[in-house]
Design brief:
The protein is 52% helix and 22% strand. It contains five helices and five strands. Helix 1 (41-59) packs parallel to helix 2, helix 3 (104-112) packs across helix 5 and helix 4 (119-129) crosses helix 5.
Amino acid sequence: MILVGIDPGSQYTGYGVVRRDGSKLTCVDHGRFSLPSKAPVPERLGRLSEHLSRLLDQTCPSAVAVESVFHGVNTRSLVVLAQARGAILAELGRRQLDCHEYSPSEVKRAVTGSGRAHKDQVARMVKLLLNLRGGKFSADATDALAVAVCLANSLRVERIRDAAART
């Protein structure tokens, strides 16, 4: 099963693609979409949608998770971030993909066991859980991989709960 995690942003949007085989998780791809900061918002959102569309075409995921907004530095940046999430959700809806949303604290709890973990703790655990070696990862990509791990854990719990309900 291929799962995609997305950490939305108006300038950088992180993505992480993982494969789940039973309880084993493997990183397939990760990175970030860079959007031109000086471009008008509609152009940035259009480019974000194009980048996401290409990623979804390449990976054919079973499900996608998007981190939800919890606060912004200021009102303007919060609005633009919400618009970026809207562009992402619209593309996922257009494709009728199984879409999940998780708060930052849910993602942190799924990866580290604590909803108040710091970014460096999340990054360390993502590397351990996915057996990633060396190299430097952008914070956006690491956060997106954490979202994908959260999705994998959540789907596994749902499957177990459904199986228990049937017996």
